[in-house]
């Protein structure tokens, strides 16, 4: 069973200071050992100050270290006797000798790790700001190429259902033209796993030059496209094996769902009505039971 305390840490990780992340990393690596430590012992092991550990603990929702440690002790006791097997497939070592029946487990395990990294790398402050920007944008452009088109088109569909004015282009000429005609009232979203796809980078660069607010979804914080981002969401910092794009789809689609649900929640009455109206417009595109 996934640790609730680890999920709390991962959910706030992106907003922690670098020193606080050091403490968080130590706890995430071995949560159970914390139950046997004092505040001083933990700070020494993390090589940070005691106030830093306290700030980290309070940032994830606990009143102090004592409450945090008691929660760890309680969770450890609940999980005592439960055997959990971890398979950290960081590089997804697919070997010639692997059995076909091992593939589903490896895919699910790797995907779970990717999604956990997603949660750690998202700044809630940035996420909230992105929701507000998209909610109020006059026009939303979405730029992508190749594999990232899957997430881009999914995002386009969801935004259209909510009644937002948006468009997606995967043609370089169309991207550049549209980006060049944006204004400061608009938003541009660039989706690129590597952050180095020339067409997507140039489109975001042009959008920024047009004074539109630029939002970038990528895997690597120091990638080229990040230079032109007003707001940056990184899915991870891990480099998976050749063909890692099959995992980039998963992480990007989860971010699309986060944006969609965030917008819906930001003005529930308004967007739920729009969603219902959009669904009615295409209702005749699906077969009904009575037609059979």
From TrEMBL:
Q: Which Gene Ontology molecular-function terms are recorded?
A: carbohydrate derivative binding; DNA binding; DNA-binding transcription factor activity
Is Transcription regulation one of the keywords? yes
Give all residue intervals belonging to the HTH rpiR-type domain.
3-79
InterPro entries the record matches: Homeodomain-like_sf, HTH_RpiR, RpiR-like, RpiR-like_SIS, SIS_dom, SIS_dom_sf, WH-like_DNA-bd_sf
The UniProt entry's GO biological process terms, in alphabetical order, are:
carbohydrate derivative metabolic process
* Superkingdom: Bacteria
Residues annotated as domain SIS = 130-269
Any Pfam family the entry gives:
SIS
For this UniProt record, give its keywords in alphabetical order, as a comma-separated list.
DNA-binding, Transcription, Transcription regulation
Identify this protein by name: MurR/RpiR family transcriptional regulator
